[in-house]
Specification:
Strand content of chain B: 25-35%
Oligomer: heterodimer
CATH class of chain A: Alpha Beta
Distance between the termini of chain A: 21 Å
Largest interface: A-B, 29 and 29 residues
CATH superfamily of chain B: Bifunctional nuclease domain
Helix content of chain B: 25-40%
Number of domains of chain B: 1
Helix content of chain A: 25-40%
Structural class of chain A: alpha+beta
Distance between the termini of chain B: 25 Å
CATH class of chain B: Alpha Beta
Number of strands of chain B: 8
Largest sheet of chain B: 8 strands, mixed
CATH superfamily of chain A: Bifunctional nuclease domain
Shape of chain A: globular
Strand order of the largest sheet of chain B: 6-5-4-7-1-2-3-8
Chain lengths: ~170, ~180
């Protein structure tokens, strides 16, 4: 398993889609995952320290896990099938581990609230990980099909988020 | 506590707001609660039996609670304060501990429809804020509602009075974020 962290959450100004960029810890590869608007907001607002008067859905889920006195052990982005990423949420309770299927966005929204480690399965990172051009050592293009990702991402205005990158 | 069923989930044509309409199971009165789009979709998708390839957030929550052998006893919309409805999810843990978790009504209802647990509204909230239909249309609507399962598809023809009511609401007040 490859440990990763959330490098940024990027908002498309042209669509309702958001992209969360996971970065391999100690490595250069990034894994861009397209997620829905509410889930993107759930990750971004929490990382940004925004407070809401009422618990949002992932706050509720995190509260439930805390109040049940179980712990979120880790989340894993464990598969990529037909263009969809899949994730597992692993909860430890009474010395046992329970795994649950989840969308990566939900898993990540829980991970940031409950401070759990984030992992990516090696085969997923191998297939969908990208190295941004400034870090690229070989000029050859990465996996086919990712040009669209790259173009989209490089078209975003990232000024706000670059600051965050440096903080990591 | 008044037990209610979900009468419908409705969308405004003018903005992104959705309303879940709760009906008193034993009286002809309705409580509309404005909720967010994502939560409304989550409730509707489940009630409509739409298959989703990957679990939605509320599916994930329910899957976790089931695996941990938690028993959700009911959810209750227990308060209206400063234009915001509050709810609680009332449960008993596997080890017999009672928990009551603060929630928005939308999340509580999205979980309740998946769990199949009862939905209640506090007496005072219902008495003060429920809408009673006019008698002549109410009779017909009540008979239909009593026969319908929660989430059963609605016959729009019966709901004229209700639509009139909803379209008469001033939603501008609700534009401020909750």
């Amino acid at each position: 398993m490859i440990e990763a962290f959330i490098e940024s959450v990027r908002i498309s100004l042209m669509s309702t889609t958001q992209v969360v960029i996971l970065r391999e810890r100690g490595g250069k590869r990034r894994l861009p995952i397209f997620i829905g608007r509410p889930e993107g907001d759930a990750i971004y607002t929490h990382l940004n320290g925004e407070q809401f008067p009422r618990p949002m859905t992932h706050d509720l889920a995190a509260n439930l896990i805390s109040q049940l006195r179980v712990s979120l052990r880790r989340i894993v982005i464990n598969a990529l099938r037909d263009g969809y990423f899949y994730a597992q949420v692993v909860i430890a309770a009474n010395g046992r581990e329970f795994s649950f299927d989840a969308r990566p966005s939900d898993a990540l929204a829980l991970a940031v609230r409950l401070d759990s480690p984030i992992y990516v399965a090696p085969e997923v990172m191998d297939e969908a990980g990208v190295i941004p051009p400034e870090f690229e050592e070989t000029p050859e293009e990465e996996e086919k099909g990712l040009e669209a990702f790259d173009e989209f991402i490089s078209s975003l205005d990232l000024d706000d988020l670059e600051r965050k990158d440096k903080d990591e | 506590m008044v037990e209610v069923k979900i009468e419908s989930v409705r969308m405004s044509a003018r903005n992104q707001f959705r309303a879940v309409v709760l009906k008193d199971v034993s009286a002809n009165r309705y409580l509309p609660i404005y909720i967010g789009q994502a939560e409304a979709d989550s409730i509707s998708i489940h009630l409509a039996g739409v298959h989703v390839p990957r679990p939605l957030t509320h599916d994930l929550i329910v899957n976790i609670l089931k695996a941990l052998e938690v028993n959700i006893r009911y959810v209750i919309v227990n308060e209206l304060r400063e234009d915001t409805y509050y709810a609680r999810i009332v449960m008993r843990t596997a080890e017999g501990r009672d928990l009551s978790i603060d929630s928005r009504p939308s999340d509580a209802i999205a979980i309740a429809v998946r769990w199949g647990c009862p939905i209640f509204v506090d007496d005072e909230v219902m008495n003060q804020h429920a809408v009673v239909l006019e008698e002549e249309t109410g009779e017909e609507t009540e008979a239909r509602a009593a026969a319908a399962e929660p989430g059963a598809s609605e016959d729009d023809e019966d709901l004229g009075a209700f639509k009139d009511f909803l379209s008469s609401l001033d939603l501008d007040d609700l534009d401020k974020p909750r």
